[in-house]
Amino acid sequence: MRRRIRLALLACFLLLGRGQSQEILAPPTPAAGQPGANQTQQNLDDLVRLGLEVNPKLAQVNFAIESARGRALQVGLYPNPTVDVIGAEIGDRTGPGGIWSAPLVGQEIVTMGKLRLNRNAARREVDQTTYQLMYARYSMFANIRESYFEILALQKRVDILNYLTNIADRSVEQTKKLLDAKQVARLDLVQLEVEAEKLRADLEATLREFDPAYKSLAAAIGLNAIDRARLAGDLEAPLPEYDLERTQAYLLEVHPEVISAQIGVDKA
Question: What is the CATH number of the domain that holds 45?
């Protein structure tokens, strides 16, 4: 790759003036041919917010929490009394006829603090389901981040490849002029043409990776499809530094899936 760049730059500087060379070597800018280059750009926060609004798995877990809360309320209440009516025919078909009836009232007697135990168990189920929601949310966040940075990296790669392809194409044109003036050998032109084709092939291959990347992002958010708008972000932003052992201990202490499992054991 460095050799490609050196060849391209050399050809540019040989024939172009300083002003034209600086124009070609300007930092790469987003290419107009990229997905959604002219649309409003979304950042990571926008995608996470969209996932919180539309993700069906989160809605399902929220419904499970409401159901668990309803059960927790119901099991803590004393059983309702039952009222029934019993009766039978008097005599037989040849007798005087008639029926007798009587009310029957029943009430289940709950003893040994069973209501309190049932209520506590149901509340633990609510807690467990709540932590399952937290786990689902954080899993969604992680999946969205992964797809987001994958697309961000593809965008950056396309910008750089467009930049290098532009340099290579201009270099080929200038080298042809130098060849006509018998200032370079034909082998130099062939090498530049080969490098330009390699860059163009890399660019086309990278552009083909956008479709599966956006499909993964849509699935992480909870959508069937998502507009292929250019994403806003910076791959060169500094990353936080973590102490691995302290981070591992902290995760084991607060990870919602671990806490949910502990609650399940306690409830049992």
Answer: 1.20.1600.10
